[in-house]
């Protein structure tokens, strides 16, 4: 490790800049994609292809310790460290742009939620895809039950999600989203 890196990151605790892997599109909307544990930004390529031609700019970073981003040996890789590096990277790439849409997958949901909580002025929408449920066994069962009861009562929401995801749409084509209730 170079002395300047040691001082800047370890002593002064300045966040690392993440490696930007995907930067596609040029629309007014900006979507930031955050991968999960054991993955890297490349996992988002199919979604980026599906959104090609839409009016949005899509950016995906490799998180600290993954893919092409820095892999420092002296940090704890905490949610806060990931969030700080993500914030630094977003601000460096976008400056003081308007609010962004953040999509997190798995562990990326936790990092995205932390980013949104600490920087609400930055976030327009927060999308959590397959978030981990972190609770004791009893609470985890209750959370899952509540979640499934919520989803089961909203077939239009499920149909909309499946269409957006681009999967299984033939199996669920009978759902109609035009009658979606205001509760959704």
Low-confidence stretches: 166-184
Average per-residue pLDDT, rounded, comes to: 79
- The percentage of residues in β strands lies in 15-25%
Return the CATH class of the largest domain.
Alpha Beta
How many strand units?
Answer: 5
Rg from C-alpha positions? 18 Å
SS content category: alpha/beta
Total number of domains: 2
Tell me the CATH superfamily of the largest domain.
Answer: Alpha/Beta hydrolase fold, catalytic domain
Strand order of the largest sheet: 1-3-2-4-5
Q: How is the main sheet built? A: 5 strands, mixed
Helix content: 25-40%
Task: Classify the fold: give the CATH topology of the largest domain.
Answer: Rossmann fold
Shape summary: globular
Number of continuous helical runs: 6
What is the N-to-C order of secondary-structure elements (H for helix, E for strand)? HEEHEHEHEHH
Tell me which CATH architecture of the largest domain applies here: 3-Layer(aba) Sandwich
Distance between the termini: 51 Å
């Amino acid at each position: 490790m170079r002395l300047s890196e040691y001082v800047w990151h370890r002593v002064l605790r300045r966040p690392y800049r993440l490696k930007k892997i995907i930067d596609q599109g040029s629309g007014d909307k900006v979507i930031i994609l955050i991968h999960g544990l054991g993955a890297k930004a490349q996992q988002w390529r199919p979604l980026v292809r599906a959104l090609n031609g839409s009016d949005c700019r899509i950016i995906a970073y490799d998180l600290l310790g993954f893919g092409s981003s820095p892999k420092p040996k002296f940090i704890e890789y905490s949610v806060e460290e990931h969030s700080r590096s993500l914030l630094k990277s977003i601000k460096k790439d976008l400056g003081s742009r308007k609010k962004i849409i953040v999509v997190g997958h798995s562990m990326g949901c936790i990092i995205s939620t932390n980013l949104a909580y600490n920087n609400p002025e930055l976030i327009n929408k927060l999308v959590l895809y397959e978030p981990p449920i972190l609770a004791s066994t009893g609470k985890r069962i209750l959370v899952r039950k509540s979640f499934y009861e919520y989803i089961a009562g909203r077939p239009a929401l499920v149909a909309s999600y499946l269409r957006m995801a681009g999967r299984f749409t033939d199996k669920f084509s009978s759902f109609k989203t035009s009658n979606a209730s205001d509760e959704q």
